[in-house]
């Protein structure tokens, strides 16, 4: 396992605990209301309705709708390794997929994975064709500003990778070089706001084309999150090197419609339970092992 990646995972899980503890009414209480066995009908909202039946009609129907449909439809871009991507057999897999599947298992519902192009995710969510966006969504991204967000469940650095035989060894060596980045990604936003941006040429690509272009020699480096960098190197065996300096940090969250508080909070209940009983750490280790 790559120690640098695992440290970012542990930092992310610690952030989940700290943020949950500091958040007020809009968040769930992980130590009291969420356990490993949290499944219907024991949810935050069924408990509230039992205690205060007169207020149950004031709760939004997003969680009830998911239970009635017996499924959670997540919108995702399938070109984001290792968070959500299509394997050689055509199956959608990834770190985010495993987390979402565990949440659905605990809620006793089916997980439906709905591929959506990145620029259509908000449109599909607002049209009601998906229940949430679960797609390596950065808490500080432009897209997140229009959403009702879960607490961060994962935190990692934004890194620059180069071929191992490259003469680029430090951030200073990037001056005058071409850096590829995935269109619409958190890495693109952070790269464009970084100190190095004015000294480089940015090339924006769809999906994983940035990696392919660097391998073909069309660009000199790629900007991406550290989780993805380590996945390419330690699971796919790519001959890349990670520059020592990070250009930023991102926190990943799940995005819901602004009015869908009950669904957001129940998913958060389950994420809190997974953090508490060690399941998040287990899944993180699975996707970071080499």
Description:
- The chain is α/β, with parallel strands linked by helices and 290 residues long.
- The protein has two domains: 3-155 and 251-288, D-Maltodextrin-Binding Protein, domain 2 (3-Layer(aba) Sandwich), CATH 3.40.190.10; 156-249, D-Maltodextrin-Binding Protein, domain 2 (3-Layer(aba) Sandwich).
- 38% of the residues lie in helices and 22% in strands.
- The chain has eleven helices and 13 strands.
- The chain has helices at residues 3-22, 30-33, 44-51, 62-69, 95-107, 121-126, 186-192, 209-215, 226-235, 261-277, 279-288, and strands at 71-76, 79-80, 84-86, 92-93, 110-115, 132-138, 148-149, 154-163, 178-182, 201-205, 221-225, 240-242, 248-256.
- Strands 1, 5, 6, 7, 8, 9, 10, 11, 12 and 13 form a ten-stranded mixed beta sheet that branches.
- β9, α7 and β10 (201-205) form a beta-alpha-beta unit.
- α1 packs antiparallel against α11 (279-288), α4 crosses α10 (261-277) and α5 crosses α10.
- It starts with a helix and ends with a helix.
- It is found in: Cell envelope.
Question: Strands, helices and their partners?
Answer:
Elements lengths: L2 H20 L7 H4 L10 H8 L10 H8 L1 E6 L2 E2 L3 E3 L5 E2 L1 H13 L2 E6 L5 H6 L5 E7 L9 E2 L4 E10 L14 E5 L3 H7 L8 E5 L3 H7 L5 E5 H10 L4 E3 L5 E9 L4 H17 L1 H10 L2
Helix pairs in contact: 1-11, 4-10, 5-10
Coarse structural class: alpha/beta
Distance between the first and last residues' Cα = 5 Å
The main pleated sheet reads as: 10 strands, mixed
Q: Write down the Rg.
A: 20 Å
Q: Which CATH architecture of the largest domain?
A: 3-Layer(aba) Sandwich
Beta-strand residue percentage: 15-25%
The count of helical stretches stands at: 11
Q: Would you identify the CATH H-level superfamily of the largest domain?
A: Periplasmic binding protein-like II
Helix content: 25-40%
Main location: other
Signal peptide: 1-23
Organism: Ruminococcus flavefaciens
Region (Disordered): 26-58
């Amino acid at each position: 396992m790559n120690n640098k990646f695992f440290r970012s995972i542990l930092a992310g899980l610690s952030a989940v605990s700290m943020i949950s503890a500091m958040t007020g009414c809009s968040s769930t209480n992980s130590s009291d209301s969420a356990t490993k066995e949290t499944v219907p009908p024991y949810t935050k909202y069924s408990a509230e309705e039992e205690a205060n039946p007169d207020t149950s009609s004031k709760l939004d129907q997003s969680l009830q709708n998911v239970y009635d449909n017996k499924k959670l439809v997540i919108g995702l871009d399938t070109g984001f390794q290792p968070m959500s991507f299509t394997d050689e057999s055509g199956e959608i897999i990834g770190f985010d997929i495993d987390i979402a599947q565990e949440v659905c298992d605990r809620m006793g519902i089916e997980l439906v994975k709905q591929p959506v192009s990145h620029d259509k995710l908000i449109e599909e969510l607002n049209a009601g064709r998906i229940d949430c966006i679960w797609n390596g969504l950065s808490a500080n991204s432009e897209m997140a500003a229009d959403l009702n967000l879960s607490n961060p469940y994962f935190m990692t650095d934004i890194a620059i990778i180069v071929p191992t035989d490259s003469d680029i060894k430090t951030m200073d060596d990037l001056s005058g070089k071409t850096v590829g980045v995935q269109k619409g990604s958190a890495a693109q936003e952070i790269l464009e706001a970084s100190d190095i941006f004015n000294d480089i040429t940015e090339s924006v690509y769809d999906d994983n084309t940035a990696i392919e272009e660097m391998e073909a020699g069309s660009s000199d480096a790629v900007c991406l999150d550290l989780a993805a960098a380590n996945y390419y190197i330690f699971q796919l065996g790519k001959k890349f090197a990670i520059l020592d300096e990070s250009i930023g940090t991102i926190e990943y969250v799940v995005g819901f419609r602004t009015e869908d508080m009950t669904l957001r909070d129940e998913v958060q209940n389950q994420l809190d339970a997974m953090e508490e009983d060690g399941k998040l750490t287990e899944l993180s280790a699975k996707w970071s092992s080499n």
